[in-house]
Each structure stands twice: as structure tokens, then as C-alpha cells.
Amino acid sequence: MKYLGLVLCINLMVIAYVWQNIEVMRLRMQIRDTRLAQLDLMQENDHIRYEIERRRTMKAVESYARDNGLRRWKPGDIEVIVIPEMKGKNK
């Protein structure tokens, strides 16, 4: 009976040590999963940026316009609007 306290303390220390190792492994797995998710998101972001840049090229714009029934613009399609400067008014 006099060793019961000592045995309980040793058992508690072993449980705390095992619990600590379990938590460390759980955190490592969570960090690994988070890194993998980050890599996936970075690759998806790179792909989206590539698509945006690819669609901004004049060739892609012309192809889109041609596929949707639009025609090439001509110089006569552009109008220039001149706004006269107002005299006597502060800008």
C-alpha cells in the first residue's frame, strides 16, 4: 500500500509522455496535410493566372470575337469626343 502513490505517479508520467507523443504526431500530420493543401492551392492559382494571361492576348480576344459573331473594328467605328475647356472656371 505504501508504494501505491509512487506507482500512480509513474503511471501518470507515462500517460503524459505517451499523450505528448500522440499530440506531436497529430500536429505533424496536420502540418503535412496543410502543406499539401497549400501546394494544391498554389498550383491552382498558377493555372488560373496562366489562363487569365492566355485569354488577354490579342489572338485569344480575336478568336472569342470571331466565335461570337463579332466583326473586326474599322477606323470609322471610332468616334473622338472633344470636350471644350471652360474659360473662367477653376479646375
Fold topology:
Layout: H1 4-55, H2 58-67
**Record field, number of beta strands:** 0
Rg, alpha carbons: 35 Å
Number of helices: 2
Averaged pLDDT: 90
* Shape, principal axes of CA atoms: elongated
The rounded distance between the terminal residues' Cα atoms is 97 Å
- Report strand %: under 5%
Residue ranges: pLDDT <50 for 5 or more in a row? Answer: none
Order of helices and strands: HH
- Content-based structural category: mainly alpha
Helicity level: 55-70%
Q: TL;DR of this structure?
A:
The chain has 91 residues and is mainly α.
Please explain how this structure is put together.
This protein is 68% helix and 0% strand. The chain contains 2 helices and no strands. The chain is elongated. The mean pLDDT is 90.
Structure characteristics:
91 residues, mainly alpha, 2 helices, 0% strand
